[in-house]
Amino acid sequence: MGELRPFRVNSDNRTLSTNEHAWTNVANVLFLESPAGVGFSYSNTTSDYNKSGDQRTSEDAFLFLVSWFERFPGYKGRSFYISGESYAGHYVPQLAATILSHNTSINLQGILVGNPYLDDNMNTKGVTDFLWGHAVISDEVYANITKSCNFNLSDGSACSDAMAAYDTANTLLFDIYGPVCIDAPDGKYYPSRYVRYTYFGVHLF
């Protein structure tokens, strides 16, 4: 409902309206929750949960796709894309490599990754460069971070101290130009545009 959704929640929080920019307007979209045990996915063999890993996830997803195309042969041969975000920065290319290595009839045309989590140290460096490049952190703080941090496992307290000098000021890193994040009266943490305030029993949105 938050991103690719075919529907949007209306302001009354009760009804839906069509999302004219939904991916489902231009493609058939298949959502796969993986590895087994994530979301509504499960295994009938509980010991499978102890075998999770990137390679196992890739193999399971590949077997799922092969079985899915066998069950729905009308989709065979159509252009096929794999997309994902965050840790799918691992899952998506690994699944693509598995498909290509098996020389299947899956007509893989490309992959898409959004905000991919590739490497913790490089992600940290990327976030630092991004924040400095958008004037969220000062030249001085940035210079101290780049001087003190190698962005690898050798980094110690000097790097941690340099990074700690950056004050997020309650900004949301995924939306640095949006309203700041604040503590809501109900104890939860929201971007201020979503915070619900209560005055004398009346909810204000």
TrEMBL record:
InterPro entries: AB_hydrolase_fold (IPR029058), Peptidase_S10 (IPR001563), Ser_caboxypep_ser_AS (IPR018202). GO terms for molecular function: serine-type carboxypeptidase activity. Keywords: Carboxypeptidase, Hydrolase, Protease. The keyword Ligase does not apply. It comes from the Eukaryota. SUPFAM superfamilies: alpha/beta-Hydrolases (SSF53474). GO terms for cellular component: vacuole. Its EC number is 3.4.16.-. GO terms for biological process: proteolysis. Belongs to the peptidase S10 family. This is Carboxypeptidase. It comes from Triticum turgidum subsp. durum (Durum wheat). The lineage of its organism: Eukaryota, Viridiplantae, Streptophyta, Embryophyta, Tracheophyta.
